[in-house]
Write a structure and sequence with these properties.
Helices cover 29% and strands 21% of the residues. By secondary structure, it is α+β, with helices and mostly antiparallel strands. The chain is globular. The two termini are 31 Å apart.
Amino acid sequence: MKKRKLLSLLLTAVLAVSMVACGNQETVTNNTQDSGNTQTEGTTNTEGTSEESARPTEPQGQLVIGTTTQMGNDFYDASFSNNATNYKTYDLIHGYSTVVPDMEGALLYDPTVVASHETTENEDGTKTYTVTINDGLTWSDGTPITAKDYVFQLLLESSPEMNGVDGYPSQAGYSLVGYQDYFDGKTENFAGVHLVDDMTYSVTVRAEELPFHYDIYYSTAAPRPMHVIAPDCDVVDSPEGASITGDFTTELLLKTINDPSTGYRYNPKVTCGPYLFESFDVASAQCTLTVNSSYVGDYRGVKPAIEKLVIKTVKSDTMINELKSGSVDLLFQCSGADTINAGLDLVDAGEAQKNTFFRNGYGKIQFDCSQFPTDSANVRQAIAYCLDRSEFARQYSGGYAAVVHSYYGLAQWEYQESKDWIDQNLNTYEKNLDEAKALLEADGWTLNADGTPYSGTGTRYKDVNGELKPLVIEWANTDGNPVSDLLSTMLPEAMTEVGMELKATTMDFPTLQSAITHSSDKIYNMYNLAVGFSIISSPWYYYSTDPQWMQGGYNSNWIVDQELADATAAMKPIAFEDTEAWLSAWQTFIDLWNEKLPDIPLYSDEYYDFYSNKLHGWQSTSVWEWSRAVLDAWVDA
């Protein structure tokens, strides 16, 4: 136990600094991922020449990966579902994007995919990116991948036809010249997209979208198999832009993409990622992937060495037992004291190994700011004052987490650079029921059910355009979630004392996601879940007032607040290398966010991967996540 105690002391010291200093998007039920690269302790497996030389030259074996975030039957992209496990599975199935993040999170042109690239600044203020694809890339069915497949993706996923498929947002080419006319169906040609030749495409960015913090990302595209999704169609070019010819209709896409049995969304059999989709069992929420022998490698040329991946849903309270018994081989991004301590017991006993890093994201209560009464910042702040977040983090994490007060996680460099500033400027919302009552009274919640002045007990009411409305908060949560369980013991009594009524509904995670995205019959006021920030941190989309971004997993709070939108928009044009200006704008944003409070941040923590002794070469970080780390790993035969 000496090693474990030493780690605990180290972690306590690290988090104590965070706590003193303090004084999202993919979503998960209880833990999530992304961006930043602060590693508190590396993997405990043996690294070095002997281990590297043991890596098999051909794929072998099976790895069973356990996830607490219940998968859904959806494998197209995050615009249909931003369930974190589904999205990382998508990452394994699909590949060959022209721009990718490296192991440190820096964006680059993938040399495995891109033969050459060129950038041209035009006289009208637009910018054109021209990208040539390498010969020799193929789909899993042997069909050659050409520039047409990249242009097809941009056209398909910007089209009104695709928008007709379950409301797919069709945002792929949003920043490009001619997008709106193309999306609105005014023209069949996308003016800002061109098929230059068989292996080359170009995109032209609108002047008003420049400059851009991540300008290289404007040139990115990912191939889609046109011969599968739009058979008998073609991509052609003209001076007016590229277009799709043939019988390209929503009706076609509803068949090729959305058919529950054979559609590409649910059964993507022709892909180009490191793994191939084999099956998904809806009843058990288990997905099976097999290695793609046609895959030529990631940006480093690395190919998978594990033949089969099984991704299965596990429960927080039993998943360490599953690792011990061998029914799962890898548990990634574990959080919470019970899970971590049980996992460390396995490590101490020599029955498992570990890898750990700080989280780039946070656990949270997420508000829907389009719904009464959580459309009021006063109500949201009052709920925050009803919860002792420090005690919550202590009970949930057992010392493996710190309270955060705005839109940031422990792994972010901005947070590391801003600890003193955060301590001096952000409201910590320490539990204060008197402050909660004052906020509610100022917001007009001053009446009883009969319209008389509020008596001080029971549910508060408010006169809204002549109608008395009760202060009822509808809370959606997920079953078997320790965060839900803890909130249910800490929130209701305090909320009742200040005059709120909390109505809880428990559901599975896909159902909760449908409510968040407004694609279900019922929408709730608040949800508890977690968010992992993207490597390409783009808060100007997440808090935009443009209806275009009130969908597709972007503005998932449905908050329309011009001050917040303006604060994030100010970050967008800052040059990537101007870290000083970026940090200043980031601080302005999180200060305002702290006031508007679209979420209540609960904690940001240290993640643990626990894995079987049969797994080797494992090292994931807050940037290099499990879906990418698996390419370097291997298992015993």
